[in-house]
Amino acid sequence: MNQIFLSRNQLPMRNTLLFLFTLLVHIVAAQDLTVQGTVLDENGKGLPGATVAVQGTNRGTSTGGDGSFTLTVPANATLIVSSVGYKTQTIALQANLKINMEADLTQLQNIVVVGSRNPSRTELETPVPVDVIKLDELKTVLPQTTLNDMMTYLAPSFNSQRQSASDGTEHIDPASLRGLGPDQVLVLVNGKRRHTTSLVNYQSTVGNGSVGTDLSSIPASAIERIEVLRDGAAAQYGSDAIAGVINLVLKKDAGLSANVTYGGSSRGDGETFNANVHYGATVGSNGGSINLTAEINDRQRTNRTQNHNLVIYDQSDLGNFFAYDFSNDGARERDDDLIAAAGLTRDDFNFQIGDADIRNIQFFANLALPVGVSSEFYAAGGANFRSGTGFGFRRLPSEGHVLAIFPNGFQPELESNIIDNSLITGFKTNLGFWNFDISNTFGLNDFEYTVSNTVNDSLGANSPTSFDAGGHSFLQNTINADLTRFYPDIMSGFNIAFGAEFRIENYQINAGESGSYIGEGANSFPGFSPLNEVDESRSNISAYADLEFNITEQLLVTTAGRFENYSDFGSTINGKLAARYEFSSAFALRGAISTGFRAPSLHQQYFNNIATDIVDGELVSSGIFRNDSDIARQLGIPELEEETSVNASVGFTISAGDLRFSADAYNIDIDDRIILTGSLGNDPFGSPVADLVALFSANGASSGRFFTNAVNTNTKGLDVVVDYGIPMATGRFGISALYNYNKTEVDDDLNQLPAVFDGQEDVYFGPQEKSLIETNNPQHKGILTLSFTDNLLAFMLRNTYFGEVTRNGFPFGEEQVHDGKVVTDVSASYNITPQISLTVGANNLFDVFPDEQVYSNSYFGVFKYAPVQMGMVGAFYFGRVSFKL
């Protein structure tokens, strides 16, 4: 090698030349260029939202609605182009770039939004379990027509049962995730917080004392997919996300589709009519879109009370009616003669027990409107109008309820008028290298009651038979501001997100007409009185940070923290740490630990009413009193505090060809869980407590109930998901096996037992209240689905196993185990033309029911079945015509 030596006298000249050369290089390098180009999808159309970054720098931009971009880059730059669902490309700099992206089919099937603020995570790449339910592909063959019913048969950790004779809970079905309460799962729409209903479940049903979100207020035909995050996420999304998060992603595709479904039960009732139409179109030339959906769902009542063998009758003068189950035709004929002699029919005495009449009319819209090159205005929302008719307990003539109007007794009807409105508006853009999103989400649920076919005993023969009983409403408005940025050159990738949220809530109870509440009030459902009226508000402000470190190509570590301050109970800080290690492209381990919380709802703090309850077979008035009422203070009932939780999960994923497998074990500890007490003032083991009875009587009730942070619970479980697809010559055959094991236990010691209730633990929080938390949802649930799809045919066979449940009728019933059952769904679809298809099928093909209730739990045999597991409709057959253009 030749060497060059410079003398001492030549060194200053060398340094000067070196300085000038370096300066020239920097000057040349500093001459940045402005590059324009277009990113195209696999069909040659502009691809919006793709990331175009300069390799080795923090420079980058996103493509506009038409796939175009403009970026200032160094003269010698190399571009990295990436987009969710497409393979990343490395591009040398050139003029007028046209970049054709290659689809990554695996990603296209599994991209998720919830659980990670990195927009490139797939279902199996997240450090926590996320289910993706592609509803738009499935709904054509599903027997179910509403979201609650669909998800019960699609997600094993999700359960929802229709209730009967349970006031407002007949009209909005309570639902749970991982066996926890309806208010311990957060619902999002397009990633934005959804409001809850205004309804408190207080009729000793699943979710007793809780307030949930009405999933069925959103038309299923408006939804592209459902993402179910099965992990605690309060540190990411805020209050309520203890059990997990359900994110409903709305459609944004172009085209026209319509479906008409008609079906009914094998017993000739429960007729269901559903019709929906969806229209999507592009807006402008930059990739904007608008999607409009309208849907009507009309479900008629069912009756499952002893197959109409149960009547109320009298053997002499119709003055002492009682229940009797006729066991032979001779007895039935003899008693039919007695009834006929009185000018009556058997229908005058039958109980109506089963599903309520429910009618939904729904409208929804989803809009994306590009603004310039890298910005977008978006909006989504809709309206749901629901009316329903449910039924209370039958009043017998022997009870003497204004016999001048109803000499043969009557069964009151509770009619609902529910309006549910929502609107999301937002704007997102690029601020330098940051993605900025600001939005406002509004939601309102208004629930009004009319009780009819009833009387107010206090008004005697002048009593109306129909009353406006008042109602309640809940309003929520949430403002979000979020910033995210991905750094491809930090480690193997680093994503940062942070933001703030401001939320206001308002809860109201409005009084009904005076006749509904004066005296003892309307039978079955005394109206809300001016003393019950509520108009309470609160605000909440929060801030969060969410970091994702791809430390290596194999190791992902995420962490999140969130601060929240509520105007009514104070502040809380929660955090989350999760990790995923990929041993190979086929196998990975994942796990997470987090803290969480749920603020007591305004409903739980302020709901109060007088309702009908059953005590030792008698119908009595039981009061629910505000947590801050004078009577609560006299009894030492403490003010409500937030629930707190610790979640931990560990699992693994396998992805090999067409096989996807995941298994995740979890543990959830919840402290200070809010419950609704039993009916205090009644002592099932002796005489009623005189002082309490007197106190409640002065407030118009025979007994009283309160919301309180009474218990701590522990939930353990396991989720297993197996999906296997087999490509065939003319289609695809799929096998899906899903399983959930879930067990919740309540700690033996109560947190808060006022001294006045010493010795009455079983009344304050008794075996019935405990069983509603521990054993009313199946501990085991499994779903096995076989499917086949090609260009002409689609076939589905699904078996759902609902494990055993235990119900406790304490204090006047008994504990009963309902054995596990298997429900079979089957459907077949045929494409008559490329645009029109015909589907026929059945839910519960073999007419499976829960075990019949033991007599002491059935209110004299009236309630033949309990509303558990698959419910009490029985076999349901349907036909559907679908159109798609």
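Next protein, fold it too.
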Amino acid sequence: MSKKVKVTRDAKDGKPFEFALGQIRVDEATLRKIIANSHNATIIISNDMRFEYVSEEGYRIFGGAEEDLLGHQVTEFITPDSAKLVSERYAQRIKGAKVIDSYPITIYHKDKSLRIIDIRISLIKTTDGTQKALIHAQDRTEEKQSQDLLQASEERYRTLVETMNDGLAIDDNDCIVTYANEAFCNMLEYKPKDIIGQCWVEFTKEKDMELFKAKVKERQSGKSDRYELVWVTKSGRVIPTIVSAAPIQNAEGTFTGTFAVITEITIQKDAEDTVQFYLDLLTHDISNQLQVIMTSAGLLDQDLLKSYLDDAQQDIQDAVERCTRLITKVKRAGQLRHLPRTRMDLSTVVKEKIAVLDRVYSTHSILKNLDNPASVWADALLGELVWNLLENAARHNPSEDKKVWVSATRKNGYIQLSIADNGPGISKARKKTIFDKSKRQGGVGLTLVSQMARKYCGTLEVEDRVKGKPNQGAKFVLSLIEAK
């Protein structure tokens, strides 16, 4: 398809004209074959921007034949932006200005599609002294499309990784974190710069080097694994997780690091603890009360003094009431996972419950900083939470003059509700285990409150009402996120 260009030459001796290529000399036919078989298109255009010569590869790129291109304006076959760029740079080049000679342009293929080609332009002079533009062009369309698809794929995966709910972390063969997605950083309450460059073991609860070495050895051997691991956040909270880890290997099969998906299982762990807690209640607390009922009921059939029979009846009634309260609290705890958090006014809830407390337990309550609304993120069981704390302050207080101090303060985005009493107080040793389900030293009420506080992303702490004097009463401090 290429147009044969006649070469004017002086051949007085009748020998074919030869061209020097490096250290060899080739004839015209060989030179044409070299140009025709080049992967780059060779194009010559005139000063008025018309095609004068197009090689075989050039016709393939444009999708036309001699009659489609030769003699036609170059600008007919390239997009307006590319045409402007080529024309401006060609005019500058003709004037002798130094311009970039290699750049991409967009052309129209004969089938109406757009194609991206890289061109390299230089000026040549013909035997008659006319200056032409010599263009070498290479089709980059498929390569550019592949790059675009790859970039789009990378963007999709990057978006997937950055928006996934689970944490994702990558470390090198020295267990130094090289990447951490937003979910993992949020989970640990750190910025990426605080995690990347550190050994992942530094963020775990147990800085167990034996575990560390064992996991590294498994990854180096090419083994993937799934195991539980507890992390420690910046604020000191512990986060139970499931880690799904797999080794990363280079093209040669050499171990270069590990990538791991970290799934928080706090809710599942709480559910497991709750199930165990309920089981303990059924097998221990209620069983004890049933034993009291059966023992006391046996006394009613015997010929005993009326005072003994009255005591037995009272014991049965008390045991039934305890079982009823226990079942009610367990039912309340079971509702925790089914209620969404919403904006609740803590001040209103506290004042409603205080009115009931003073009436039922004859307490004298002193309120502070609860006149104005104090919105927190909670749910419909916020009243149950507050009531359990207030009831705990009154029920276990043997004083004839029962006093309860309730106050609210704002601190670092939280509203702290303080409930103190003038009861017997809580010893230092008991404070450490009062919220431990396995110990149950705080009873069902405090266990329920502790669960609810965690659900609301809050905390519950116990202190002395008078610092350093536990026998003068206890103080519970509930911190809930302020709803602004």
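About the second fold: The first strand starts at residue 18 and ends at 21.
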